[in-house]
Design a protein that fits this description.
Beta-Lactamase; alpha+beta; 5 strands; elongated; PAS domain-containing protein
């Protein structure tokens, strides 16, 4: 086989992996126009990659505060470092419904977000990737644990006051 065919086959399976991984992957350019929108994002948003490509993240999701998000992305573009957002700081960036409504107690998906620079061959960062992790089970478990702690504490107080 030729090297070009090998590279094409490798590109194909890598793209298949990108589409099927259980993590949201969005690639944004410096103008915050969406360049990549994987299967996770399509499944949870209901928007096809062709619906979002080259569109502004902020026009599609006006609930994302533009100034705040640009400030979060600034070190990613300029310093080529990662940035993180956790569900404890902000429950979600994209308000996706919880896709496990029968077993899940939460109405929306809690998310952790990682912003990472995508360096070109010249070392410039013209694109960043955003990885969206579903943390709903973790958040629900922590909330249940905290509620249980409160109940146990209240029960202990009642026992001591008798």
């Amino acid at each position: 086989m030729s090297q070009q065919l090998d590279e094409l086959l490798e590109f194909h399976w890598m793209m298949d992996m990108l589409q099927s991984v259980d993590v949201g992957i969005v690639v944004l350019d410096r103008n915050f126009a969406i360049q990549v929108w994987n299967g996770f994002m399509e499944s949870h948003s209901g928007l096809l990659p062709s619906d979002v490509r080259d569109k502004s993240l902020f026009s599609l999701y006006p609930s994302i505060k533009e100034d705040w998000f640009k400030q979060k992305c600034k070190p990613v573009f300029e310093l080529k470092t990662r940035a993180f957002m956790t569900w404890e700081q902000r429950p979600y960036l994209f308000k996706f419904p919880n896709y496990r409504p029968i077993t899940g107690s939460e109405s929306f998906m809690y998310q952790n977000i990682t912003l990472a620079p995508l360096k070109s061959a010249t070392g410039m960062v013209d694109y960043i990737s955003m990885m969206i992790y579903d943390m709903t089970d973790v958040a629900a478990g922590k909330k249940q644990f905290e509620a249980l702690q409160v109940r146990v504490s209240e029960d202990e107080e009642r026992i001591q006051t008798r």
